[in-house]
Amino acid sequence: MNFCVKLGMLPRRLCVEGTKTRARRAADCRRVRRASTSCPAAQGTAFPSGACQDSVGGLRTFTMEQSTDRRPRGLQRGHRAALAGRQPNGAAGAGGTAQRSTTFFSSAVRAEVTALACTLPQDSGRPLSRWSSAELAQRVKDSRIASSISAATIRRWLQEERIKPWQYRYWQKPTDPQFLEKATVVLRLYEKAADLARQREIIVCADEKTCMQALTVTGGVQAAGPRRSLRLGCRYKRHGILNLFAALLVHSGATMARCFERKRFLEFQSFLQMIFGGLWCQGVRVVHLILDNGPTHAPKQIPAWIESLPLPFEVRVHWLPINASWLDQVEIVFSPLQRKALTPNHFHDRQELSDRVLNFFEERNKHARPIRWSYTAADLRRHMEKPLRACA
User: Using 50, 70 and 90 to split pLDDT, how confident is the model at 79?
Assistant: First the structure.
């Protein structure tokens, strides 16, 4: 199929192709097709390759054959370059000009780059905390593993190997020699929470969120508006801190909270007395109390103190392993508290902060649901049986 491009003084409607309607474009195509039939292609006049000259209505025209090759232009150029006897992105052939060369890396180079990505930058004398693709490329060139390599190539290799040295995550090896035994007891209690509740045995997780600051922001907080997010001043005034003691009833998801100015065993005793005298413990036989080993809980004093209380039920304290507060379900409640009630932080005094926190838990108890805890004791045992990969 041929199409004609007119040169010179063309009507505007023929120049602004994007504004034509379908009917006008069709009429223009018919007019151009008729003009192209009289093209003297064999007159020997020098025109661009595939073009010929004609005169229609006093206007100079030339026609150009439309390529039927539907491949991308890069492939077309490569095909034409191959027919001309040279590489598409390589060095020129006989009589050609020099072009950009394509570098091919051996499997040994790729293996060395992958091994380098699996080391720390300090091992190579780099003052970095973790590798990036650009830093790896520079290191490869400095160590003469390869004379030239791009960061994109290294990133593609590492992506295929599923290696991301620029990312990091925290992990911890268990330090408690009785970690498996203590954690298994707690996880089995979580699994049987609903059944134990029917047998009048409840599970209570207790912990504290410390150092909640009462800050007054200069200028206050401005509500969000159209094309504007919530605004908060960058200057503030301190009004002290509060410490939150909270407990979670595992089988129902209900919470109980109280704020104190200090965090000592004395405040924790007062909080436990509030739990033991509340509705949760009415008519129960056993209270399973899950605590961590923090100094506020006084692991050496609390058993004797609980025994001295005239309680109509039995209290069994289950201690979490050392550095395993992630097993305490009440910690999950602190996250939405921080996100929804305490951020941004704008309170005129500690009383307003305390009211906000307690009202948050009161509102949460209206729609309390048990936490969907899926990590079981079998999962823990299976995980502990795997060999731990220690850092060299």
Answer: low
Nearest alpha-carbon partner for 9 in 66, 56, 64:
56
**C-alpha span between 355 and 212 (Å, rounded):** 13
Confidence of residue 74 (pLDDT cuts 50, 70, 90): low
- Beta strand pairing call for 59-65 and 221-222: unpaired
Task: Give long-range contacts, CB 8 A cutoff, 24+ apart: 63-72.
Answer: 63/2, 63/3, 63/4, 63/5, 63/35, 63/36, 63/39, 64/2, 64/3, 64/4, 64/5, 65/2, 66/1, 66/2, 66/3
Structural domain boundaries in the chain:
2-65, 107-161, 179-384
* 11 vs 159: CA distance, rounded Å: 55
Question: CA quadruple 218, 223, 228, 229: dihedral positive or negative?
Answer: positive
Q: How confident is the model at residue 186 (pLDDT cuts 50, 70, 90)?
A: very high
CA dihedral sign of residues 378, 319, 172, 212: positive
Whether the CB-CB separation of 215 and 234 falls below 8 Å is answered with: no
Whether pLDDT at 188 is above 70: yes
Q: How confident is the model at residue 32 (pLDDT cuts 50, 70, 90)?
A: low
For residue 97, give Cα distances in angstroms to 63, 83, 88, 103: 31, 15, 12, 18
Q: Which of the pair, 112 or 59, is modelled with greater confidence?
A: 112
Residue 38 pLDDT greater than 70, yes or no: no
Q: What is the pLDDT of residue 2?
A: 44
382-387 — which CB contacts under 8 Å span 24+ positions?
384/174, 384/180
Could you name the CATH architecture of 179-384? 2-Layer Sandwich (3.30)
Helices and strands (H and E) in the chain: how many: 13, 10
Structure tokens of 209? 């969120």
Distance CA 344, CA 221 (A): 9
Backbone angles phi, psi at 48, to 5 degrees: -60, 155
Longest CA–CA span in the chain (Å) reads 118
Cα dihedral 281→283→288→294 (10° resolution): 20
The single residue listed with the structure tokens 């073009």 is: 51
